Amino acid sequence: SCSDAAASTSDYPNPPTNPRKQQKPPKSQRNDSDIDANTTAKTTADADGTVSDSRVFDASVSSIEKYYCNPYDYFLEYGLKIKPLRPYQLDSMLEGNFYHAVLEHAVGRWVTEHPGESPELRQMQAYIRDYARLDRSDASPDDQWSVLEEDPRMSVLGSSERMRMVHQQLTYTLLNMAAYMDGIRTAWCAEGKLRQEQSKDEEGKNDKKNKRSVISANRIVPLHTERQFGTINNKPSKWEALADGYLNGLVNGQIVSLPLHVNGKVDRIDKVIASDGETSTEGLLVLDYKSSAKQLFGSKPSEKSPDVDKGSAIHYGRELQLFTYARAAQRNTDVPLIGLFFVPIRRKNDTVRPVAFPDWIATRTKGPLSDGVTALFQDDAWVSAWNMGLGSGATIVNPWITSAPGVWAQIQDDEFNAICDFVQLKIQEACENIMAGNLPVQPYKTLDPKADDGLTRSSYTDVIAVDMLNGEAFHYEDPIAKDALIHTAMTMVRKKR
């Protein structure tokens, strides 16, 4: 997530002499490269010579994902603190920051002014228009934030007639997103589109003897926006960091054991209020904004689209955010998780005109719509969500289902917890390698020639160009199916017991 904080690291006082070539540096050359330099250290030696240290290893999930994309990129950005020059122009990073910043303040304002209420579309769109402005000097004194505070480069959006038109299109993209989200929320809360699955008998069929009224969603309300957990930039939060592990390393020749704290920010958490007319229940939806549609596990496997590699990104540590955010919500609230979603801000073939859902749904057709999307919001909520890109980027936790459960990835509660544990283990393994100075030039590459690799979004391709001349530095990944990932995670949990 664009909003996730970077790992808290020191200036690498004794960096590896050549991380490009050192896969596993000898112990004499290992260092405290990622101990938080902003904390005060108190060291005492135990009887076995191990040093107790008050410092902690602070890491963010986004920085660890960068490590797994290419360890040397992590070394350059967080070790040597080399920051690439960002030109005065609109790029993908600036666009993403614009979307995140406007949504944070617009949704946050709704949560503050209308607690416990589902967003009203026209009011939400009014908030978006307001916070998307570059100049908000006419706002109330206690709310004069503007996107220029997020990144001064945002001023490029007002630098010419062309860029002012681009700024307008970015704003329309957010207005459209609000409309589509409103449509999905409306559909899910009608006719049991998002509901709890009925109990099954021994043969796996619906249990008619113990048949009960269906508990289905009747209200979905924003609960948190940009919810921080742990300490970021020396700013603590109400939610605690994920602190499950310890890292062993060397400081001045002495073995130290440092607690690992994983910190971050969750883009958005919504609460689902559901009932069957007599019994009420609540659950959380963890949402992570993405500029465009992104897969988590993808749709249900088929002959045309078999599950060959849908567990690869999590298995290899390149997609750790959603399950880390879900674990943070799980630890800091007493409300169970219903689902995890990548929410695309910009849909494929999206129109650039602002739409209001009531106006748009009134003119819907059974054929292609003006933006090329076919038959949205006609019968089932999953159709709307699927075309928006939620389907492939979503995971529903049992016993919750949607109106077309075969389209959505559904996992059992114990599988969900096992994957969360597996993700935390991947974070710990990366941090152990970082502490050991194991930071080689080793970008990942899949067996799919059309897929992204560890260089696709790297800011340091020029730095490692010589290393990549013959392509031998790539770390090739074998595809991992979702079921294989779950099996690995469940096996790991059983071994821990």
Indicate the low-confidence ranges by residue numbers: 1-18, 21-51, 350-387
The largest sheet is: 10 strands, mixed
Mean pLDDT: 79
- Please tell me how large the radius of gyration is: 24 Å
Number-wise, the strands total 14
Please estimate the helix content: 25-40%
**Shape by Cα distribution:** globular
Strand content: 15-25%
* H and E order: EEEHHHHHHEEEEEHHEHHEEEHEEH
**How far is it from the N-terminal to the C-terminal residue, by CA?**
33 Å
Work out the helix count. Answer: 12
Helices and strands: which structural class?
alpha/beta
Describe the structure in your own words.
There is one protein chain. The protein has 497 residues and is α/β, with parallel strands linked by helices. The chain has a domain at 45-82 and 211-347 and 389-497. Helices cover 31% and strands 19% of the residues. Strands 1, 2, 3, 5, 6, 7, 8, 9, 10 and 12 form a 10-stranded mixed β-sheet that branches. Strands 4-11 form a two-stranded antiparallel ribbon. Strand 1 (43-45) and strand 2 form a beta hairpin. Helix 6 (161-188) runs antiparallel to helix 10 and helix 11 packs across helix 12 (482-496). It is globular, with a radius of gyration of 24 Å. The two termini are 33 Å apart.
Features:
10-stranded mixed β-sheet; globular; single chain; disordered N terminus; 12 helices
Brief digest:
Pfam families: PDDEXK_1. The chain is built from 12 helices and 14 strands. By secondary structure, the protein is of the alpha/beta class.
Q: Topology of this protein?
A:
Layout: E1 43-45, E2 51-53, E3 57-60, H1 61-69, H2 71-79, H3 92-113, H4 121-132, H5 147-150, H6 161-188, E4 194-196, E5 216-229, E6 242-251, E7 254-275, E8 280-290, H7 312-315, H8 321-332, E9 337-344, H9 357-362, H10 381-388, E10 394-397, E11 400-402, E12 409-411, H11 413-435, E13 444-445, E14 475-476, H12 482-496
Helix pairs in contact: 1-2, 3-4, 4-6, 6-10, 8-11, 11-12
